[in-house]
């Protein structure tokens, strides 16, 4: 068996095309959505991701607001930029690119954001709303993965899903989304403390690999026909991406997301969805 490719690039392109019309409609109502980004330091990966987010904005007609600080920026300097974006009416949603440099209290920065402008769904208020099943901006990578699986008709209801990783951008919220009634999956979360990862993986209908360990998921650990989502980003000595999923898994899985070209573009598309939805809420509130 050779796995069907879960093409994140093509799926994201379709989402962006639909968003272009919604942004045009918002502009006709007098509201131009604006995405702000806060980038601290000079990590090449983060610089690339933020540049991609602004390229996407230009494609769909969302205004861009870019704030960059050096790696030496203090907690106070970063928080001052967050306050500035909270108060800027042209910025309808924004993100703080993670990770922040060592020594910065990331949680304090996230908590300072205006939850109504949190385009990443990572503010504690919005994560709490997710727990309570209340409307909230959805964390971009987890919901991007669900959208990708739906696009290719991968059944979530009743599926056994193994999420590998427990980081804030994916691992923490992925099970919350997958276990909603609308998804109805059964989730096992694995991490560095898991005793027998292989035993869990072998049971999985869907694997979400977000550990950041190159080729952690081996063909012999994957059930025939499973869907495998590769979220891990490590780099080899030439700078090329090495995912969490061993290339041999393609011969066993039913579906596989390429890396690059899978989950990354879906993360960016979901960010735009969050920005547009927040702007639509603001436009409706202003009209009533
Ligand atoms: N504030 C946030 N920080 C981070 C998030 C996040 O969702 N919010 N997630 C990751 C990084 N990330 C988003 O910011 C991200 C990762 C990958 C891509 C992407 O488009 N990747 C391309 C490949 C790009 C390359 O060649 O390096 C792909 O997969 O095709 C976009 C966004 C951590 N931080």
Radius of gyration: 19 Å
Ligands (ions, cofactors included) = ligand LMY7XDAE
Structural class, please?
Answer: alpha/beta
Q: How is the main sheet built?
A: 6 strands, parallel
What is the number of domains? 2
Task: Give the number of helices.
Answer: 9
**Inertia-based shape:** globular
The largest beta-sheet arranges its strands as: 1-11-8-7-5-6
Quickly name the level 1 CATH class of the largest domain: Alpha Beta
Average of the residue pLDDT scores:
97
Q: What letter string, H or E per element, gives the SSE order?
A: EHEHEHEHHHEHEHEEEEEH
Helix content: 25-40%
Strand content: 15-25%
Given as residue ranges, the uncertain stretches (5+ residues, pLDDT < 50) are none
Report the CATH architecture of the largest domain.
Answer: 3-Layer(aba) Sandwich
Number of strands: 11
Q: If you consult CATH, what is the topology of the largest domain? A: Rossmann fold
Distance between the termini: 55 Å
Name the CATH superfamily assignment of the largest domain.
NAD(P)-binding Rossmann-like Domain
């Amino acid at each position: 068996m050779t796995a069907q490719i879960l093409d994140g690039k093509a799926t994201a392109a379709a989402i962006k095309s639909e968003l272009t019309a919604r942004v045009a409609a918002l502009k006709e109502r007098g509201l131009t959505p604006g995405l702000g980004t806060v980038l601290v330091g000079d990590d090449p990966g983060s610089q690339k991701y933020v540049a991609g987010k602004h390229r996407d904005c230009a494609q769909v007609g969302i205004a861009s607001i870019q704030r960059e600080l050096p790696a030496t920026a203090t907690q106070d300097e970063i928080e001052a930029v967050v306050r500035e974006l909270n108060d800027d009416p042209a910025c309808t949603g924004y993100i703080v690119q993670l990770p922040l440099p060592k020594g910065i209290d990331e949680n304090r920065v996230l908590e300072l954001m205006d939850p109504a402008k949190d385009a990443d769904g990572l503010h504690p208020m919005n994560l709490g709303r997710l727990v309570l099943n209340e409307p909230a901006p959805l964390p971009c990578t987890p919901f991007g993965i669900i959208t990708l699986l739906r696009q290719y008709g991968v059944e979530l209801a009743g599926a056994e899903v193994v999420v590998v990783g427990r980081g804030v951008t994916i691992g923490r919220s992925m099970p919350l989304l997958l276990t909603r009634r609308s998804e109805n999956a059964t989730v096992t979360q694995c991490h560095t403390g898991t005793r027998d990862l292989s035993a869990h993986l072998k049971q999985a209908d869907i694997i979400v690999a977000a550990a950041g360990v190159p080729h952690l998921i081996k063909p012999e650990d994957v059930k025939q026909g499973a869907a495998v989502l590769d979220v891990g980003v490590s780099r080899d000595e030439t700078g090329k991406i090495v995912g969490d999923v061993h290339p041999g898994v393609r011969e066993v899985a039913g579906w596989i997301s390429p890396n690059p070209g899978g989950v990354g573009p879906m993360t960016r598309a979901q960010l735009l969805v969050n920005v547009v939805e927040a702007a639509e809420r603001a436009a409706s509130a202003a009209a009533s």
